[in-house]
Amino acid sequence: MYQIIDGKRISQEIKDELREKAAALKAQGVERCLAVVQVGSDPASGVYVNNKKKACEYVGIRSLSYQLPEETTQEELLALMRELNGREDVNGILVQLPLPDHIDQDLVLTAIAPEKDVDGFHPVNVGNLSIGRPGYVSCTPAGVIQLLKRSGIEIEGKECVVLGRSNIVGKPMAMLLLRENGTVTVCHSRTKNLKEITRRADILVVAVGKPQFVDGDFIKEGAVVIDVGIHRNQEGKLCGDVDFHSVAPHVSAITPVPGGVGPMTIAMLMANCVQGV
Ligand code: NAP
Q1: Taking phi first (over 0 means left), then psi (-120 to 50 degrees means alpha), and beta for anything else, what does residue 52 get?
Q2: pTM score, whole prediction
Q3: Which among 50, 36, 48 has a CA at the least distance from the CA of 93?
Q4: Among 196, 206, 228, 247, which residue is least crowded by beta carbons within 10 Å?
Q5: Is 177 helix (H, G, I), strand (E, B) or coil?
Q6: Which atom of ligand 1 is nearest to 170's Cα?
Q7: For 86-101, how does the pLDDT look when each residue is reduced to its tens digit (9 = 90+)?
Q8: Ligand 1: which of 139, 140, 146, 166 to mutate, judged by most atoms within 8 Å of the beta carbon?
């Protein structure tokens, strides 16, 4: 029988702890404030932004909302970053991605002051993570570490395989598992003999961006499987990068989709806002 790693419950637990911390800070006269910037009106981005604002409200973080039109120029957005960087009452800045094509995403993310970069995407924070210095860490992989720790799953000394090497999930995930003393292998689209490598994993983190890509054949008996993927299948139902029904009989623990990694991303964003670095 396998354990279901319950991201809904764990993310709620984290938000409740943060709510207490935010209240204690408020009692000392410190209010946390997150500026959320959205350019254009992509419906999916709108849903994410709303969920972030709701989480701020729950935890007790003030949120400022900037909903800018699609035609916003790069210079206008950079000017807003400069303004928010300079505001003492704002301690976190989040730019919802993707940005429209005429805006250079990297340029905008790099314009956020590293000490306000609660998404952990700034090169300074990425660098700090890789050399083991304190800094903001990308929320989704940070959430995976919390899922493992709060489910009593030891990382130290384990064979950890990360499937995917994106800048926001795969790479920081690998660095975090390494920081926790796992033995880490990263796989990507050019990896040869993929299943041979994934079958070595005690902990397999899948962030491949392909619906139900990983089946039972990829899994060592008794492994822990974390599914970062999120997709809608042909029936309109949410599914992950892992074929849950094929994989679950082989594992000791697994995250479901929905209700696994998904809710952790916002919880860790809230953690970054409340706790700082
Ligand atoms: P991404 O940028 O598309 O990266 C996918 C990675 O998978 C790349 O490194 C790619 O390799 C690798 N890959 C693709 N096909 C492969 C194959 N056939 N064999 C081996 N590796 C392969 O995706 P992402 O942004 O990391 O996101 C991954 C998934 O997580 C997506 O489903 C996304 O929706 C989801 N996600 C969820 C959350 C959340 O909050 N739950 C947050 C972020 C992302 P190359 O580098 O060689 O191209």
Answers
A1: alpha
A2: 0.97
A3: 36
A4: 196
A5: helix
A6: 26
A7: 999 999 999 999 999 9
A8: 166
